[in-house]
């Protein structure tokens, strides 16, 4: 993975993956998308959670329009599918992913953020989907993932009218689960990632891979899938030990925060 626009480092069991194109507001090109895929495909076995962040004042301003090419329908289709492949490794790869957001989370940047499992925004964050005004359509999975966060009507409004959500309204709409002060989103994301890394790996896997599928199934299919996943998760030796620790008073009880 040799790309100066992406840096991967490690903090214990947490991988930190940073977009490093601050002069371009971390805009995405094909090489960077491929590097994101490789970053997740080659995670060390001991890594149990990842954080995605952007250098500078912005998380990601979307597609690098300076590299936008004229494509025929077939080429456009295959280009979009290459983005789908990469962001699928974020959403349904080996570990949960926390996004640390600030500044622009726009277009492809919002598509990348929506592929993560938890999003932490600071109060400089803003969200937009300018593709509609540019005569194009989202192609990195946004039409599937973003409506699950904010609903079809809100996404339609954003693309038709160019509406921009600020950090406060964006958190209320569902873009982010956490809203923190300026320049603290990465710290909060790392705090959450370290907490997530302490979970039983099979439980995290179920939350990443089973829960989204259950949500899209009929009730009867969902109940059956849930029962299967519950049986598998509780059979793991680590899960059995954690239950014993709780029953014998060695585990912390849930407290009001």
Give the helix/strand layout.
Layout: E1 6-11, E2 14-19, H1 30-41, E3 49-54, H2 73-91, E4 97-101, E5 104-106, H3 108-114, E6 118-122, E7 126-128, H4 142-150, H5 152-161, E8 165-166, H6 167-173, E9 178-180, H7 185-196, H8 201-216, H9 219-235, H10 237-247
Parallel strand pairs: 2-3, 3-4, 4-6, 5-7, 6-9
Antiparallel strand pairs: 1-2, 7-8
Describe this protein's structure.
The protein has 10 helices and 9 strands. The chain has 2 domains: 191 residues, 2-enoyl-CoA Hydratase, Chain A, domain 1 (Alpha-Beta Complex); 47 residues, Lyase 2-enoyl-coa Hydratase, Chain  A, domain 2 (Orthogonal Bundle), CATH 1.10.12. A 6-stranded mixed beta sheet has the order 1-2-3-4-6-9, sandwiched between helices. Strands 5-7-8 form a 3-stranded mixed beta sheet. Strand 3, helix 2 and strand 4 form a beta-alpha-beta unit. Helix 1 packs parallel to helix 2 and helix 8 packs antiparallel against helix 9. It is globular. The protein starts with 5 loop residues before the first strand and ends in a 10-residue tail after the last helix. The protein has 257 residues and is α/β, with parallel strands linked by helices. Helices cover 47% and strands 15% of the residues.
């Amino acid at each position: 993975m040799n790309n100066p626009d992406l840096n991967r480092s490690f903090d214990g069991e947490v991988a930190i993956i940073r977009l490093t194109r601050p002069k371009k507001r971390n805009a995405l090109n094909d090489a960077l998308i491929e590097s994101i895929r490789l970053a997740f495909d080659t995670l060390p076995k001991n890594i149990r959670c990842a954080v995605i962040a952007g250098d500078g004042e912005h998380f990601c301003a979307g597609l690098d329009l300076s590299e936008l090419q004229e494509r025929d329908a077939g080429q456009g289709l295959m280009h979009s599918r290459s983005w789908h492949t990469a962001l699928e490794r974020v959403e349904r790869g080996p570990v949960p992913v926390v996004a640390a957001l600030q500044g622009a989370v726009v277009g492809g940047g919002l598509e990348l953020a929506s592929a993560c499992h938890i999003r932490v925004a600071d109060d400089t964050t803003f969200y937009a989907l300018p593709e509609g005004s540019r005569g194009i359509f989202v192609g990195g999975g946004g039409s599937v993932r973003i409506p699950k966060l904010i609903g079809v009507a809100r996404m339609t409004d954003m693309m038709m009218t160019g509406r921009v959500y600020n950090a406060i309204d964006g958190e209320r709409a569902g873009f982010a689960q956490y809203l923190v002060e300026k320049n603290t989103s990465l710290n909060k994301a790392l705090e959450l990632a370290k907490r997530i890394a302490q979970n039983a790996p099979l439980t995290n896997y179920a939350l990443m891979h089973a829960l989204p599928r259950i949500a899209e199934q009929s009730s009867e299919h969902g109940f059956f899938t849930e029962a299967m996943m519950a049986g598998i998760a509780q059979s793991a030796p680590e899960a059995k030990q954690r239950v014993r620790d709780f029953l014998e008073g060695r585990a912390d009880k849930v407290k009001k925060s």
